[in-house]
Write the structure tokens for this entry.
Amino acid sequence: MRTRHHIFDKYTLVSTLYTGAFTHIYLARHNQLETLRVIKAVEKVHAGSLRSLREAHILKTLNHPGIPIIYDVEEDDSHLYIIEEYIQGDSLKSYVSHKGHLSLSEIYQYSASLCDIVNYLHNIKPTGLLHLDIKPDNIIVSDCIKLIDYGNSIYKDEAADLAIGTVGFASPEQQNGGMTDERSDIYSIGVVILYLCTGSSDTGNIVDIGNFLLRKIVAKCINEEPAKRYQSVSSLLKDLKNIEKRKNHLSLNIVVAGSKAGIGTTHIALALTGFLVHSGYDAVYKEEISPFKKCEAPVVPMAGSSLMLHFKKQPDRNGVCLIKGCPVMPYFNQAVYVNSDRKYEITVTDFGEYKNNHHYDCDVLILVGSTAPYELEYTTRLLRSLPKSPKIIFIANLCTDSHLRLKKLTGYDLSYPFPLTDCFDTRKCSKYIKNITKQFLPPVCHTLTHIRKGFKNVFNFIKKP
């Protein structure tokens, strides 16, 4: 029986968490144990009371750290009371909305934890359980991931020919009232991973997943045909663990600067960032303005803001937006303060025009110039004025000459051609960028289907002061 401040003399009400037409959810304290509980009070006249009771009975049979605990079920003449674990944390939807672009490590952590929970559900005895409403709203980020709301759950041997689930996250067979199985939950997991990567559940945004391994996993999860999806969560989890094995643990700051304005530093920097992300690195393109021009307002829009307008993207709280899977941090000028706590393994900073009298604090300096006959003398003079260092790499933009010919032309050992190509076309850029990255990254096979292991060993010269 419920009074104004007490329920069944066991609990003291602390606050009201939710009030609906037939359902009230309270935060309460157990009087003897001095612990917090959540109490869901559902009016018996409401059809949802039977659904809530069924959910409670399902949860009472489960034992997993990622599943809420049901402590008791009580009732009086008018209400059904379900007493369950109090989970302190934010929904995954709120967490992603607040934090913005997540790291590859976080994406793996949350995806793998979700898979572990669902894999447990699918394999409980005597018959597995399907959740059928997996979405960011039903995932709580606490000390660990918690999957809540089992109102749509059914056992595998139960027939489900009604449209259930949430539009945007439910599989096609769920939305169309077809037969459901483990692959229906796998579809929803795929959309959740897509949401973690892009902040959107629109399956058309799969191109915004820069890491091709994650993109391949999501594409397989959300295939319209169940037979072409993962056939079990364990096989999905296995592929996710392959991504974890490739964690690089790098910390590199790469600066790209041009021999003069308009030479193509932005093009090269974006191509390099997209290539690194595609290859499994946690990288970001960061736009900077020449230190000698920071006090001046840019006369024309900067590249980052122009890209945002062209692709109709909005930056997250860290000032980062995803452009075709490439994290881009535009320069917002000194009037805009960006509170960024997101750390990347590799930062590719576009400084625009190179200045001889400025010290660039970086691990690698990529200088973009030209070998056109009318600019070759200036380019050569600039390169010869630089200190000889394996940290400095020269790229001749819009050039098809070979590496050896460029070395002869410029007198610089680390010289590479870069022809005209779409900077966001990773497939076309890869054969040019991979030769450049060999100078500061360990050997990697950059293809669309495989990446070699061994990212941990970075060349020693990068570590030198």
Remarks:
- The chain has three domains: 6-85, 90-245, 252-463.
- The domain at 90-245 is CATH 1.10.510.10 (Transferase(Phosphotransferase); domain 1).
- Residues 444-465 have pLDDT under 50 and may be disordered.
